[in-house]
Amino acid sequence: MNQTGILFVCLGNICRSPTAEDVFRARAAQAGLANRLRIDSCGTGHWHVGEPPDPRAVQAARERGYDLSALRARQVSDSDFQNFEYILAMDSDNLAHLRRMAPSGFTGHLGLFLDFAPGHEGEPVPDPYYGGDAGFAHVLDLIERASEGLLAHLSERLND
Ligand code: 4NP
Fold this sequence. Notes:
Layout: E1 4-10, H1 16-30, E2 37-43, H2 55-62, H3 80-83, E3 86-89, H4 92-101, E4 109-112, H5 133-158
The structure holds 4-nitrophenyl phosphate (4NP).
4-nitrophenyl phosphate (4NP) is lined by residues 10-16, 43, 47-48, 127, 129.
């Protein structure tokens, strides 16, 4: 079966994008779309490659029933533009980085993840790394909302 590739991208791949990967994977599974989608995440930076998600992100996600613990950080690579049709950045800095990397023939969707969250179009998922626990809960709120919107968008397309 043809799969659509969805890649979530932040800076470190230890807070926002692994959270998005796991939340969206859970929502896609609930919607019966797990085998139609290939879901992954990465960071534009290299500092945390090979590391598990930040313990604060793991804890905040666990409180809502998600398990991030098995994920490991990786850095975005040129091949991601061949392997993923949707490349969704958490903020405008990461989006700018991805736009510089994107080959001219890239025909997929490259944009902000929150463009799929009604009422939050054009906004970033704020970087929670230097803040407190409330930042991680807010990240989850935004990611859950955008995941619903992305799933609705994809459901329509995949049922065509
Ligand atoms: P993330 O958060 O991009 O959501 O994974 C960050 C993680 C690490 C750093 C910055 C943001 N850092 O500067 O190391």
